[in-house]
Amino acid sequence: LFPVNPGYQEMFGLPVFAHIGEIPDPVDLAFIITPARTVPGALKECGDKGVKGVVIITSGFSETDQAGKELEQEIVRIGMENDIRIIGPNTMGIVAPHADLFATGSHSRPQRGSVAFISQSGNLGNQLTHWAEQQGIGLSLFVGSGNEAMLTCTDYLEYLENDPHTRIITLYLESVGHGGRFMEAATRV
């Protein structure tokens, strides 16, 4: 774990870097939780560092207004230019127990299992992740898909089709951008 924040030197006993480019090791996955206006710059830094996966927790994009939609289009463009896959923005995070990754707003730590849950509602997703932990139901993956600026529920469904840890896939959908593609994937899976 490499905290990045120009205002701190240490967090939770870990050294803090002012910029992601200062991290001496490779970075597999970055979580961006800065104000919306600073996300494009942070994403560019991730591209310069060679990061290939970014989870953007930050809100203030297409769910708000036209300026937010334009900002979201900008981060997608930056992601495409730098070969970065983006989860979110406006997501509650992800949980991947088989990788010991628990990165959501809740403190749930469900056990490893075979149930995947993809949710367009972060709140519902966090509640069900917590419920799964209480009931002893093991998860293979939880993703709060957020605004789905780049990766969509259909992308996650296609990924889970071949995930060796997943036997059950649960989706909570409020809308589907490309219905034909979704129906094709859902029918196949």
Please, could you describe this protein's structure?
This protein is of the alpha/beta class. It has helices at 39-49, 66-81, 122-135, 153-161, 179-188, and strands at residues 10-11, 14-15, 29-32, 53-56, 85-87, 93-96, 101-104, 112-119, 139-144, 168-172. The strands form 3 sheets. The chain has a 5-stranded mixed β-sheet with strand order 7-6-9-8-10, sandwiched between helices. It has a 3-stranded parallel β-sheet with strand order 3-4-5, with helices on one face. Strands 1-2 form a two-stranded antiparallel sheet. Helix 1 packs parallel to helix 2 (66-81) and helix 4 (153-161) runs parallel beside helix 5.
Percent of residues in helices comes to 25-40%
Evaluate the radius of gyration: 17 Å
Supply the helix-strand structural class.
Answer: alpha/beta
Count helical runs.
Answer: 5
Portion in beta strands:
15-25%
Based on the model shown, name its key terms.
alpha/beta; globular; 5 helices; five-stranded mixed sheet; three-stranded parallel sheet; 32% helix; 189 residues
Question: What secondary-structure arrangement, pairings included, does this model have?
Answer:
Layout: E1 10-11, E2 14-15, E3 29-32, H1 39-49, E4 53-56, H2 66-81, E5 85-87, E6 93-96, E7 101-104, E8 112-119, H3 122-135, E9 139-144, H4 153-161, E10 168-172, H5 179-188
Parallel strand pairs: 3-4, 4-5, 8-9, 8-10
Antiparallel strand pairs: 1-2, 6-7, 6-9
Helix pairs in contact: 1-2, 4-5
